């Protein structure tokens, strides 16, 4: 899961094809597609770190519910925001694939990369 988020960010969201002066995406579309994923990764890293720390303390993961509850109260709102935006992301992605040949070609090239194959 975290590996996939990292590929999404490092390989796609931060790709020179999607950022900078020669990007095939306008800033608004880039924001729609990738904006919340950075926060999702931060929250996921915190959550997984806390779970791993508890696992290091006891392999039975006793008291795991307090970790879940704490993160649900303080960090999971970004997941709600990200999931709520999923429809807009999907529509934007479909529109870009059909209307922007440069985006479509860049996406195919990035998807065919070795970073996406494992």
Written overview of the protein:
By secondary structure, this protein is an all-alpha fold. The relative contact order is 0.14. The model has no long low-confidence stretch (mean pLDDT 92). It has 7 helices and no strands.
SSE inventory with pairings:
Layout: H1 2-13, H2 27-34, H3 37-57, H4 64-74, H5 77-84, H6 86-99, H7 101-111
Helix pairs in contact: 1-3, 3-4
Mean pLDDT: 92
Number of helices: 7
Low-confidence parts lasting 5 or more residues at pLDDT below 50?
none
Number of strands: 0
As a percent range, the share of helical residues equals over 70%
N-C termini distance: 12 Å
Percent of residues in beta strands = under 5%
Q: How would you characterize the largest beta sheet? A: none
Query: What is the gyration radius calculated from CA atoms?
Result: 17 Å
H/E element order: HHHHHHH
Main structural class: mainly alpha
Shape verdict: elongated
């Amino acid at each position: 899961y975290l590996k996939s988020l990292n590929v999404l960010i490092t390989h796609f969201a931060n790709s020179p094809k999607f950022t900078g002066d020669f990007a095939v995406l306008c800033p608004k579309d880039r924001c729609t597609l990738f904006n919340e994923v950075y926060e999702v990764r931060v929250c996921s890293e915190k959550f997984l770190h806390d779970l791993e720390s508890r696992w290091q303390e006891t392999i039975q993961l006793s008291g795991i519910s307090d970790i879940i509850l704490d993160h649900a109260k303080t960090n999971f709102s970004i997941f709600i925001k990200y999931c709520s935006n999923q429809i807009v992301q999907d529509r934007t992605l479909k529109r870009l694939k059909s209307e922007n040949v440069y985006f479509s070609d860049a996406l195919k090239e990035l998807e065919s990369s070795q970073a996406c194959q494992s």
